[in-house]
Structures are given as C-alpha cells and as structure tokens.
Fold this sequence. Notes:
Blueprint: H1 3-22, H2 29-52, H3 56-74, H4 81-98, H5 100-122, H6 125-131, H7 134-141, H8 146-149, H9 156-176, H10 183-205, H11 209-242, H12 249-281, H13 288-315
Helix pairs in contact: 1-2, 1-3, 2-3, 4-12, 4-13, 5-10, 5-11, 9-10, 9-11, 9-12, 10-11, 11-12, 11-13, 12-13
Amino acid sequence: MDLDVFVTAHRAEWDRLEELLRRRRRLTGAEADELVALYQRTSTHLSLIQSTAPDPALTGRLTSLVARARSAVTGTRRATWQDVARFFTVAFPAAVYRSRRWWIPTALLSTLVAVLIGWWIGTHPEIQAAIAAPEQLREMTRPGGQYETYYSSNPAASFAAQVWTNNAQAAAICLIFGAFLGIPVLWVLFQNMLNIGIGIGLMTSAGRLDVFLGLILPHGLLELTAVFVAAGTGLRLGWTVVDPGPRSRRTALAEEGRAAIGMALGLAAVLFVSGVIEGFVTPSGLPTWARITIGVVAELAFLAYVYVLGARAVRRGEAGDVEAADRSAEAPLAA
C-alpha cells in the first residue's frame, strides 16, 4: 500500500471526524450518523495502516482519533454494583477455571519441590548447619520457639494485614510480570517453596513435623492455592508471548492481560480470607484438628466456587475478560 496515496485519499474523512468530535454536543441527527460511519471507517483505516504500512506519527493520530470517537459513540460507562457481582460470580471464577491446566500442574510440581527440599535439609545435618548455628536452630524448632510464636508475634489484626499485603504483592508480581516469559514467576515460586521446604526440613529433624503442619495447614492451603493460581496464570501469560494461537499477539496479550489484572483483584480477596485465618485461627487456642478443619473447609469452598461457578461460566463462553461492550473494538486485519 502506498501510504502517501492512502493518506491523501482519506485525510478529508479524518479531518471531518475531528470536526464532528469537537462539537459533538451540538450535532444534528444526520451528523451523529455521519460520526458513527466515519468512526467505523477510520477504525478500518487504522487497522490497515498498522498491518501493512505502520507509520508511528500517523498511527498515533488515528489511534487517538478512534479512541475519542469510540467514547463519543458508546458514551462513558460507570461501574455499578452489578459489575462487582458479575466479576465475583462470573468473570473471576471463569478465569481461574479456564487456567486450571496451568495452575494445577504448577501446584503439584511446586509442592513436590518443597517436599524434596524439606527431605534434603532434614536428612543432611551439614545443610542444617549451613542455614544457622545449632543454638539458633534449637531456638527456632523447640516448643514455644520461633516457628510457634511467629503467628502470635503481633496483634492478630495487624499481623493479618501484613500477611495479606505480602501475599497480594507476590501474587501481583506473578500476574503482572508473567509477560516476561514467566521468569519472575518461577523466582517467586521458588522462594515460597524454599521457605516451606526449610520449615519442613528443620522441624522434621527436630521430630516436630506434626506441629509445623498444624501451624501451616489452616491458612496455607488457601494461601498457597491463591499463589499457585497466580503463578499458573502468569506462566500462561508468558506462554502467550511465545504462542498467541489464532489471535494476533497484541490481541492475545490484551485479552490475557485483562484477565490477569482481574485475577489479581479476585485473588486479593482470596488472600484476605487466608490472612484472616492466619491472623486469628492459626495462633488461636483451638485444637489442632479444629484449626486444620477450618483451613480444609475454606480450601474446599474455594475449589467448589471455581469448579461450579467457573465451569458454568466457561460453558456459556465466558473467558474471564471484561464484557464485550467494554473492550476495544477490533477491526479486521488485512490479509
């Protein structure tokens, strides 16, 4: 395509669209129809230029023009409580369910890594000695030691808020930076599994693995599931960069990126629940079986939420993206 000829042929239309946008509040009925028609044609022009003869200056001008025209045509939409309800009953569970083929293997492999690290540390005294001095290890693992008092070291409310903030940040890193081929995701996962593995290994060597599991399982089941979901989604986003499938790479990244951002909001709510359990249930005086039961119930409730509401939404064609009316218009690409 000869860009100069194309610009000469259509500049008048773009100028006319700009003129109509400047006085859009005073348009007649015929002019409003003309604005819609020019918006559609300009969207097609933009797509043709981007796919055949990309020019940064012209692309920037038409992108801005199309965005302004779309706002004028569709109007400004305000979020409502219905949007919040739809997010938590449709979009979020659908996004989690749709990415299950990524986060379930991630959860299984990560758990295996944590167990192997724990076994390695627990069976090798020289590794334990490299972690800390013998006196420090005894202080960490003894009855009433650091592992047990950690969860009651601060007031429950502030401890829960601190835990929630840290975990939400880790989940956000997995989701947002997954586009970097998933490398930051793998690092976050390894750090989490290393910390758990060290705890398993040290408490096993002290003969107190049951105490450690009784402390970590009440909140850890839901907390780690949220981290695994975030990591799996981040890895999926990274794979989209490599293989976008039948979609264009830009469209694929936009769709998966919007779903990932939505996932961050949903997982923040899930991690809030696990933070409350960690702050108020884990250090409580309840029997170990009661604390673990609370954690199992919370985990099963989340899985049921995903596999019932999420599966139902996916069968209806939902993908965890925003509603169609809120997405950028996709003009057909030239062959």
